[in-house]
Amino acid sequence: MHLRGLLWLNAIVSLLPPLILASATVEGRVELPKSHSAPVQAKRYEIVTKGGVLSTQPPLAVVYLEGAFQPPVSLSVKQVVQKDLTFIPSLLPVRVGTKVEFPNLDDVYHSIFSYSPVKRFDLGRYRPEERPIPAETFDKPGLVTLRCDIHEHMRGLILVLNTPYFVMTDTEGHFRLAGLPAGRHTLKAWIDSRTTREKAVELKSGQTLHVDFL
């Protein structure tokens, strides 16, 4: 490569954010609970309870990196849609401070509320055309259970995390979490409302670490 080309390349590289140049990746698999046959009504609402444990059906996990990270400059607005008398998605991971909207796409009234300690709210009854999309800001970490006062079997989950580094697994438990800072951290896998596994990891710049929660 000509000297001019090398100088141009070095100039471009010097402008890239440090995390892009020196980021790490974690990939692996989480052993998920076995998907079990649920009553038709429970299947319709996607969230099932077994022994007081809330989880998605089929099972999914959220893998995240715990640590002290800089607060975000801004956060995008997320949505949990009410469609066909279900919450979509049934499980939504967000960072602390995220605003979540709750659009009603059904031709019926919904009344979304939560009694969860980390976030209590009541949006009241509304149809799509009656008012602006209701929204709430989730400012404390923890699990929030969504319910509908009209359709009592509707359930949804919002997992509020104090980290920008998280990803949902696929239905086989596979995950890939990229753009991570190098160093020693704790990697966690949220599996259901009573099960979160964790492992200590040492991440190195430019490398991919394989971690399984089995």
Keywords:
214 residues, mainly beta, Immunoglobulin-like, 3 helices
Structure in words:
The protein has 214 residues and is mainly beta. Helices cover 11% and strands 50% of the residues. A hairpin with a 2-residue loop joins strand 17 and strand 18.
CATH homologous superfamily (4th level) name: Cupredoxins -  blue copper proteins
Low-confidence stretches: 5-21
**Strand order, largest beta sheet:** 8-14-13-10-11
Number of domains: 1
Distance between the termini: 48 Å
Fraction in beta strands: over 45%
Helix content bin: 10-25%
CATH class placement = Mainly Beta
Number of helices: 3
Largest sheet: 5 strands, mixed
- Helices and strands, in N-to-C order? HHEHEEEEEEEEEEEEEEEEEE
Beta-strand segment tally: 19
Question: Which helices and strands appear, and what pairs or packs with what?
Answer:
Elements: H1 3-15, H2 18-21, E1 23-30, H3 40-45, E2 47-50, E3 53-56, E4 62-66, E5 78-79, E6 81-83, E7 86-88, E8 91-95, E9 98-101, E10 110-116, E11 119-126, E12 135-138, E13 142-148, E14 155-161, E15 166-168, E16 174-181, E17 183-192, E18 195-203, E19 208-213
